[in-house]
Amino acid sequence: MLEEYGSDSEDTVTSQLLSKGTVGQHGSSPRQNFLVPSSVQSGRSSHPSSAAPSPVPSRSTSPLPQFRHSVNSSSTSEEESETSAPLLRNRTRRSWWTDDSRSWWGQSPRRRRRSGRLYSSLRKWCRWLFTHPFFPRQPITIILTLILLSVFTIFVTLLLMYILNPDKDPLPWRAYCFASPAFPPTNLDSLPPAGILLGVFSIDSGYERRSLVRTTWAKHVRSRNGAGDGDGGLGTSRTIVRFVMGQPRKDFERRIRLEMEMYNDIVILPIPENMNDGKTHTFFSWASLNAWVPPVYNETGSKAPVYSYSSRSSPPPALAPHDPILAHKHQLEDTIAQPWVRPDFVIKADDDSFAMLAELEARLRVELHSPPEAGEIEPYTGDPLIYWGYLVTNRLHRFMAGELYALSWALVDWAAKDPAVKTLTRGAEDKQTAKWMKLHPLASQVRWVRIDIRNSYTHGFLFPSEAQRAKDNLVPFPHQALQDALNNSLMTGGTPSPSDWSYSSVSKFGVRYEPPIPDLTISQSVEALVEGSEMSTLREGNPKTPEYAWDRREGRKTRYQDKRLGGTVVVHYVKKSLWYLETALALLEGPELTGNEEAAPPVNLGQFGLLANSTASPASSTVETSDTDTDSILRTSINQQVSSNNTEPIQRISLRDCLFERVVQRLKGLI
User: Where are the transmembrane segments (predicted)?
Assistant: First the structure.
């Protein structure tokens, strides 16, 4: 009966008794002989413990633990030290929650010594600082110290802003006008329009800016059709504008849903709202799957080009109010809706950019159908690879500025799928996009196309007539010197360009804009923002009056030189709604012909030149002969606006005053 108790339990009880000094030599108590008869001798026995008869039952009624206690053991010392018995608890085994980690309060001696040294050093330096004679203790010294620290913080912040600011010097925009080729080309209307999806990056709270975009350049007839009579919207018949944002916040969810239901022009990306944390790549990834634009309609009179993506199509989606008029027309008239196709370009734009859609589409159309540049060893014959935008160059980077840039469809589709591109999605998004282009398998075939995008703080609103005057009036420099200035204009430490290349009649670089004179009307104040206009040259103390300058303003027909295109493409950095409305009035509104232009045609320049020579002083005649090009531009800008009926005396006085002022300036320069 006792064989069911192993030697391990005996050893356990025996060790407990030995620790208390109650071994059999000192006598055994009834507690000690609870299971073992007293006749059993202590020590080791050659007979097994099961051989001795036992009067004690094998199972006791005592509630005590059923461990056998005996001073005899049939096991050896090696067996006694074993801890693998199933009934024996391992007293040295560590708890499961301390197997692989040290307790938070338990640290190694080395770490404790290191922490103690750091704490001692910190206390030492704090004690030294607080006991220093210059440490402020009085209220006045504490206040002065806080003021000095605040001034130092502001100084460091301004210094960093200056160092990181890329616009330390004014841009030579007149040199850009000089280097820009004439636009549009003669064959533009024979080319099929380009399919464009323009994504305007927005945020959930930007409802006011989205409303301004919807009602101005995204829909306005002069933005979509161009200047003059326009083209009836044929060029922008495949241009779609959509607003792109991340997941809206809880407070804006219902408002965004209502806005989407109303306008059908918002794209919600499956990411939190951000600017440089992957939003751009997510947008291009979305576009590679869900971007569709109208096909080439028959009204355009051209045939759609054939590319690898031309066969992909999808049913037309719900239209937005500012979508092309031809798309609305075909949706109402066609019994079978024409499917939409993949776009040729996907554009990323900021919501502080003001785009003229007809100008934008025309330039992308020309690039889409242009052959690769001459001189390439292996001309590319696949889908166009075009990276289009405002090129920014500095010592470390070369990229298209993030206010607006376009990628052709082949680049969009590749960027959405390439694994290496997916690792370059965080950081300044415009710089990251440039890195994608350098990773393309055919990076040498990617065309980086530069376009001039006007910043709102660089100069006034620019029209083709003033650009032509700037081109004619610019002092001719050697071609290589001009090209170097264009390339180095944005490089830190580059050669500074002549001041004439960046001169603006509207604003002065680095100075907050103020109207030329106070108390101008709204129309006059907007006219004063037009580069080269008579209104922009008004100054306090000048005898020229606002009414005189207003009567001699140019109409849109004159400003666009009787062309449909050729003006400003994009205006950037229109941060305030007030500036946005001013931009819309300057670029989209205004008469085709002013009152003076309707009354009579411009005066013949040759006749007016003879009249000026007969009335001017000899000194003025000398200056006019030496500065023929400059004065001819001046006379042209005056005579295009003046009637020959009742303003001839004013013409003579105006030219004479201008020539006299030029003589005075020349003499001051000589002195």
Answer: 140-164
Same domain for 242 and 295? yes
Residue 374 and residue 436 in one domain:
yes
User: Which residue's structure tokens are 């001041």?
Assistant: 499
Instruction: Reply yes or no on whether the pLDDT at 357 is more than 60.
Output: yes
Mark whether 178 and 319 lie in a shared domain. Answer: yes
Which residues have CB under 8 Å from 512's CB, separation 6+?
none
Q: Cα separation of 82 and 75, whole Å?
A: 11
398-408 vs 570-572, strand pairing mode: unpaired
Three-state DSSP class for residue 332: helix
Residue 49: the pLDDT is 45
Please list, in sequence order, all residues whose beta carbon lies within 8 angstroms of the beta carbon of residue 635, skipping any fewer than 6 positions away: 605, 608, 609, 612, 655
Residue 396 reports pLDDT greater than 90: no
The band of 110, judged by pLDDT with boundaries at 50, 70 and 90, is: low
Per-residue pLDDT at 70 exceeds 60: no
CA-closest candidate to residue 44, choices 86, 67, 77: 77
- Is residue 183 assigned to a domain? yes
Report the amino acid identity of residue 365.
Answer: R
Termini Cα distance of the chain: 132
Q: 621-637 pLDDT, tens per residue?
A: 333 333 444 444 444 44
Q: 361 and 196 in contact (C-beta within 8 Å)?
A: yes
What residues are paired with 388 via a beta bridge? Answer: 406, 449
Residue 29 has pLDDT above 50, yes or no: no
Q: Residues 552, 436: one domain?
A: no
- The mean pLDDT of the chain is 77
Show which of 429, 455, 481 is a domain's final residue.
455
Give, as one character, the DSSP assignment of residue 461. Answer: B
- Segment 294-314 shows an average pLDDT of 93
* Domain count across the chain: 4
317 in Cβ contact with 292 (< 8 Å): yes
Q: What is the dihedral of CA 597, 599, 604, 610, to 10 degrees?
A: -110
Domain that holds residue 86: 1-91
CA Rg value for the chain: 43
Phi, psi of 664 (to 5 degrees): -60, -45
DSSP state of 554: P
Strand pairing partners for 218?
none
Q: Is the pLDDT of residue 345 over 90?
A: yes
3-state DSSP helix/strand/coil % of the chain, to nearest 5 = 45, 10, 45
Q: Is 350 helix (H, G, I), strand (E, B) or coil?
A: strand
Looking at the structure, tell me whether residues 366 and 445 fall in a common domain: yes
Both 627 and 548 in one domain: the answer is: no
Residue 591 confidence (pLDDT) above 70: yes
Q: How many CB atoms lie within 10 A of CB 38?
A: 10
Residue 269 has a CB neighbour count (10 Å cut-off) of: 18
For strand 398-408 and strand 386-393, is the pairing parallel, antiparallel, or unpaired? antiparallel
205 plus 335 within the same structural domain = yes
According to DSSP, residue 293 is labeled: B
Per-residue confidence (pLDDT) for residue 600, from 0 to 100: 58
d(CA 290, CA 400): 24
Identify the residue whose tokens are 């785009």. 355
Contact 445, 372 (CB under 8 A): yes
pLDDT above 90: residue 231: yes
For residue 52, the Cα-to-chain-centroid distance in whole angstroms is 94
Stretch 454-478: mean pLDDT = 81
CA 468/CA 329 separation, integer angstroms:
38
Residue 360 identity (one-letter amino acid): L
| 258, 160 contact by CB (below 8 A) | no
Q: How far apart are CA 632 and CA 97, in angstroms?
A: 93
